[in-house]
Amino acid sequence: MHEDYHDLGFEVVYLSIDKNNKFWESVVEKYHIAIPNRSFVVMNLEESEFLNKLNVDLIPRYLIFDKEGKLIHQNAPKPDSKELRVLLESLLFN
């Protein structure tokens, strides 16, 4: 999906809130998401104002932000769904 929409300004960032770093490492390897500057582990989960405001308590969770960093979808469809492509195209082409 990143490759399909990157030229239009679309970026993918992976955040893990897993407390088990070994589990996250296995996910990163399995799904090939060890991407520098786009794959992160949240180290201060309990203190994270960002995650607390978003009420992120379930994973995976898909969020869409505009270019200015404003949250525009708090619970987006899964990356492999047709619904997400329709949503992205409506946001990117309108």
TrEMBL record:
InterPro entries: Thioredoxin-like_fold (IPR012336), Thioredoxin-like_sf (IPR036249). Residues 5-70 form the Thioredoxin-like fold domain. It holds the Pfam family Thioredoxin_8. Signal peptide: none annotated. This is Redoxin. It comes from Nitritalea halalkaliphila LW7. The lineage of its organism: Bacteria, Pseudomonadati, Bacteroidota, Cytophagia, Cytophagales.
